[in-house]
Specification:
The protein is an alpha+beta fold. Helices cover about 20% and strands about 45% of the residues. It has helices at about 95-105, 105-120, and strands at about 10-20, 25-35, 35-40, 50-55, 65-80, 80-90. β1 and β2 form a beta hairpin. It starts with 10 loop residues before the first strand and ends with a helix.
Length: about 120
């Protein structure tokens, strides 16, 4: 039986961002966002329960603006030779809610979906 553990809808994305751990920044790729969590791909090794900072960088649709969130790693798996992480947001800047509102708003959703199709091609 498949049980969806998530409490809220996730939006599939492909946005280069930055992981900051112990003062060192590493490039990552965000693959999904929700109200309380996010998923990303990274070459970094992270442990479940570890708390790190993620800096969302601006995308060319202008929906995502630079904002920083503190996350706790919930799970990980190997995905095409890179680590795929799921994380729970534990602290965020004010701008994150605006990003979520736009991603789930019908007007922005179609603009963002068009961009996603371009990135997948």
């Amino acid at each position: 039986m498949d049980i969806n553990r998530r409490k809220e809808q996730r939006k599939e994305i492909r946005i280069p961002s930055i992981l900051e751990k112990n003062g060192v920044q590493t490039k990552i790729l965000l693959v999904d966002l929700s109200q309380n969590g996010l998923g990303f791909i990274s070459s970094s090794h992270l442990e479940e329960g570890e708390v790190i900072q993620i800096i969302l960088t601006q995308d060319d649709t202008k929906i995502i603006h630079p904002v920083s969130v503190q996350v706790k790693i919930q799970n990980s798996r190997l995905d095409e030779r890179l680590n795929r992480f799921g994380a729970l947001i534990t602290d965020l800047q004010e701008g994150y809610q605006s990003i979520i509102d736009k991603l789930f708003h019908p007007i922005y959703r179609s603009k963002f979906a068009s961009k996603m199709q371009t990135l997948k091609a």
